[in-house]
Amino acid sequence: MNPIKKRMLINRIILILSSLSALIGISFLFWILSVLIMNGVDAINWNIFTFEGAPPGYEESGLKHALIGQLIIVGVATLIGVPLGILGGTYLSEYGQKSKMAYIIRDISDIMMSAPSIVIGSFVYAIIVIPMGHFSGWAGVIALTIIMIPIILRTTDDMLQLVPSTLREAAFALGAPKYKVITSVVYRGAKVGVLTGILLGIARVAGETAPLLFTSFNDNFLNTDLNEPMASLTVTMYNYATSPYDDWQSLGWAAAFILSMFILGLNIVGRLLIMKRKGR
User: pLDDT digits over 122-138, tens only?
Assistant: First the structure.
């Protein structure tokens, strides 16, 4: 066979196999989403947002306690994790740069990003829950913060490094101090990428269940005290979905639908921001 025709044949075979693989992956994704939407939409009603958990068979049963608990835990984790992640990424990009310490931090961050979330939950359980003697919302916040920080740190580091060094040099030439260069020039040039990393970090922790099972545990009633066990949408969804009661299973589908749409929305916004940045 002619070498050129042989290469063209191999190229077509690889292209067909790659396309089929992508099609299979996308079909599974749409299958999952379609099942989730069909079951979740049917389960959505106003009771979900106005009533707390109730025993099986009660019509006045909802997910109010889980929704508020999820917002509190993820919100507090975001308030702690975002500044720490941005400051850590700023140190790596602007101060540590190619130092040995910076490389060690980057390696540790990469390891933490790939670590199973249940391992982090077990770690927080050992150092916080056991010494305290009980589960708490704070333990859940700390577990989610530990998961979130490496994502934001590495994203911030990468995005700040993409800012041209000539912009920094121009600002220094005008007499601007380093902190002013970072806040007024570097951050402004990388704001879209940093915001994307923040959204992806929030989307990652918002869907975590295993760390919260070991830390904040759960509560069938509304509780806003972070010093006590607190309900979360992910753990409540797990408990309801695995129960033998039809009404609880329906609430589990509703929780899965709400959580999935929230995470999907955050990912779509993040992708749009990335596309906007590339378009520029």
Answer: 999 999 999 999 999 99
